[in-house]
Amino acid sequence: MPIQTHYLTSNPYSRPRLPLYKVTKLVIHWVGNPKSSALSNRNYFENLKLGRTKTYASSHYIVGLDGEVIQCIPDNERAYHAKSANSYSLGIETCHSDWEGKFSSCTYNALIALCAMLCQKYGLDPREDLLRHYDVTGKCCPKYYVVHPEAWTQLKEDVHKQMC
Protein backbone atom coordinates (compact mmCIF):
# COMPACT_ATOMS: atom_id res chain seq x y z
CA MET A 1 0.00 0.00 0.00
CA PRO A 2 1.53 3.34 -1.00
CA ILE A 3 1.73 5.87 1.81
CA GLN A 4 2.68 9.46 1.02
CA THR A 5 4.87 10.94 3.72
CA HIS A 6 4.12 14.62 4.34
CA TYR A 7 5.27 15.16 7.91
CA LEU A 8 4.04 18.22 9.74
CA THR A 9 6.54 20.83 10.83
CA SER A 10 7.49 20.52 14.50
CA ASN A 11 5.34 22.88 16.54
CA PRO A 12 3.40 22.90 19.83
CA TYR A 13 -0.07 22.74 18.22
CA SER A 14 0.08 19.76 15.86
CA ARG A 15 3.47 18.03 16.07
CA PRO A 16 4.90 18.34 19.57
CA ARG A 17 7.56 15.64 19.01
CA LEU A 18 6.57 13.86 22.22
CA PRO A 19 7.50 10.17 22.17
CA LEU A 20 4.96 7.42 21.63
CA TYR A 21 6.80 4.49 23.16
CA LYS A 22 4.45 1.61 22.33
CA VAL A 23 1.48 1.43 19.97
CA THR A 24 -1.31 -0.57 21.60
CA LYS A 25 -4.39 0.86 19.85
CA LEU A 26 -5.49 2.45 16.56
CA VAL A 27 -8.11 5.20 16.84
CA ILE A 28 -10.30 5.88 13.80
CA HIS A 29 -11.79 9.33 13.15
CA TRP A 30 -13.80 11.07 10.47
CA VAL A 31 -12.58 14.50 9.38
CA GLY A 32 -15.99 16.11 9.98
CA ASN A 33 -15.59 18.18 6.81
CA PRO A 34 -17.42 16.52 3.87
CA LYS A 35 -15.69 16.36 0.48
CA SER A 36 -12.40 17.69 1.86
CA SER A 37 -9.26 15.95 0.66
CA ALA A 38 -6.57 14.18 2.64
CA LEU A 39 -4.08 16.86 1.62
CA SER A 40 -6.35 19.74 2.68
CA ASN A 41 -6.82 18.10 6.09
CA ARG A 42 -3.07 17.59 6.39
CA ASN A 43 -2.57 21.27 5.53
CA TYR A 44 -5.14 22.26 8.16
CA PHE A 45 -3.00 20.49 10.77
CA GLU A 46 0.13 22.14 9.37
CA ASN A 47 -1.41 25.61 9.59
CA LEU A 48 -2.17 25.15 13.28
CA LYS A 49 1.54 25.88 13.86
CA LEU A 50 0.71 29.56 13.39
CA GLY A 51 -1.08 29.50 16.75
CA ARG A 52 -3.93 31.77 15.67
CA THR A 53 -6.66 29.54 17.07
CA LYS A 54 -4.69 27.87 19.90
CA THR A 55 -6.11 24.56 18.62
CA TYR A 56 -4.22 21.33 19.31
CA ALA A 57 -5.01 18.69 16.68
CA SER A 58 -3.33 16.20 14.37
CA SER A 59 -3.27 12.56 13.32
CA HIS A 60 -0.68 10.10 12.19
CA TYR A 61 -2.51 9.18 8.98
CA ILE A 62 -5.26 10.58 6.78
CA VAL A 63 -7.16 8.38 4.31
CA GLY A 64 -8.56 10.37 1.39
CA LEU A 65 -11.67 10.17 -0.76
CA ASP A 66 -9.82 8.31 -3.52
CA GLY A 67 -8.06 5.92 -1.15
CA GLU A 68 -4.81 7.87 -0.91
CA VAL A 69 -3.03 7.72 2.44
CA ILE A 70 -0.93 10.53 3.86
CA GLN A 71 1.27 10.10 6.91
CA CYS A 72 1.55 13.36 8.91
CA ILE A 73 3.47 12.21 11.98
CA PRO A 74 5.91 9.30 12.46
CA ASP A 75 4.52 6.33 14.37
CA ASN A 76 6.99 6.88 17.22
CA GLU A 77 5.65 10.37 17.99
CA ARG A 78 2.36 11.41 19.59
CA ALA A 79 -0.38 13.12 17.64
CA TYR A 80 -3.16 15.21 19.19
CA HIS A 81 -6.19 13.12 18.25
CA ALA A 82 -7.81 11.36 21.20
CA LYS A 83 -6.93 13.04 24.50
CA SER A 84 -5.95 10.29 26.98
CA ALA A 85 -5.20 7.77 24.21
CA ASN A 86 -2.58 9.97 22.51
CA SER A 87 0.25 8.37 24.48
CA TYR A 88 -0.41 4.82 23.25
CA SER A 89 -2.38 5.03 20.00
CA LEU A 90 -2.05 5.97 16.35
CA GLY A 91 -4.73 8.31 15.00
CA ILE A 92 -6.24 7.76 11.57
CA GLU A 93 -8.44 10.51 10.11
CA THR A 94 -10.78 9.40 7.34
CA CYS A 95 -12.34 11.59 4.64
CA HIS A 96 -16.02 11.26 3.72
CA SER A 97 -18.32 12.74 1.10
CA ASP A 98 -21.32 13.85 3.18
CA TRP A 99 -22.54 14.53 6.71
CA GLU A 100 -23.78 10.95 7.12
CA GLY A 101 -20.09 10.02 7.25
CA LYS A 102 -20.13 6.65 5.52
CA PHE A 103 -16.79 6.03 3.83
CA SER A 104 -16.70 5.46 0.07
CA SER A 105 -15.53 2.05 -1.13
CA CYS A 106 -12.12 3.51 -2.14
CA THR A 107 -11.70 5.13 1.27
CA TYR A 108 -13.00 2.10 3.14
CA ASN A 109 -10.72 -0.35 1.31
CA ALA A 110 -7.66 1.84 1.88
CA LEU A 111 -8.56 2.20 5.57
CA ILE A 112 -8.93 -1.57 5.92
CA ALA A 113 -5.54 -2.14 4.24
CA LEU A 114 -3.85 0.53 6.38
CA CYS A 115 -5.31 -0.83 9.62
CA ALA A 116 -4.38 -4.41 8.69
CA MET A 117 -0.81 -3.35 7.93
CA LEU A 118 -0.52 -1.41 11.20
CA CYS A 119 -2.10 -4.21 13.24
CA GLN A 120 0.40 -6.68 11.79
CA LYS A 121 3.30 -4.31 12.35
CA TYR A 122 2.42 -3.74 16.03
CA GLY A 123 0.93 -7.15 16.89
CA LEU A 124 -2.59 -5.79 17.41
CA ASP A 125 -5.92 -7.62 17.21
CA PRO A 126 -8.34 -5.39 15.28
CA ARG A 127 -11.34 -6.84 17.10
CA GLU A 128 -9.90 -5.53 20.39
CA ASP A 129 -7.37 -2.84 19.49
CA LEU A 130 -9.24 -0.82 16.88
CA LEU A 131 -11.20 2.01 18.52
CA ARG A 132 -13.50 4.77 17.39
CA HIS A 133 -12.73 8.23 18.72
CA TYR A 134 -16.14 7.78 20.38
CA ASP A 135 -14.82 4.83 22.41
CA VAL A 136 -12.14 7.05 23.96
CA THR A 137 -13.91 10.39 24.47
CA GLY A 138 -17.63 9.88 23.76
CA LYS A 139 -17.45 12.24 20.76
CA CYS A 140 -19.69 11.19 17.84
CA CYS A 141 -16.69 10.26 15.67
CA PRO A 142 -16.55 8.62 13.20
CA LYS A 143 -20.24 9.50 12.98
CA TYR A 144 -21.48 6.73 10.67
CA TYR A 145 -19.76 4.08 12.77
CA VAL A 146 -21.17 5.48 16.01
CA VAL A 147 -24.72 5.66 14.62
CA HIS A 148 -24.33 2.21 13.01
CA PRO A 149 -22.42 0.04 15.51
CA GLU A 150 -22.99 -3.04 13.35
CA ALA A 151 -21.00 -1.34 10.56
CA TRP A 152 -18.19 -0.75 13.06
CA THR A 153 -18.19 -4.44 14.01
CA GLN A 154 -18.03 -5.30 10.30
CA LEU A 155 -15.14 -2.88 9.72
CA LYS A 156 -13.10 -4.54 12.48
CA GLU A 157 -13.93 -7.96 11.07
CA ASP A 158 -12.85 -6.80 7.58
CA VAL A 159 -9.50 -5.69 9.00
CA HIS A 160 -9.11 -9.08 10.68
CA LYS A 161 -9.90 -10.92 7.40
CA GLN A 162 -7.38 -8.74 5.52
CA MET A 163 -4.68 -9.83 7.97
CA CYS A 164 -5.28 -13.56 7.36
TrEMBL record:
The protein's Enzyme Commission number: 3.5.1.28
One GO process term, biological-process aspect: peptidoglycan turnover
Stored CDD domains: PGRP
InterPro entries found in the cross-reference section: Amidase/PGRP_sf, Amidase_domain, NAMLAA_amidase_2
Keyword annotations of the record: Cell wall biogenesis/degradation, Hydrolase
All copies of domain N-acetylmuramoyl-L-alanine amidase, residue ranges: 13-150
Enzymatic reactions: Hydrolyzes the link between N-acetylmuramoyl residues and L-amino acid residues in certain cell-wall glycopeptides
Superkingdom of source: Bacteria
Gene Ontology MF terms: N-acetylmuramoyl-L-alanine amidase activity
Coiled-coil annotated spans: none
Protein name: N-acetylmuramoyl-L-alanine amidase
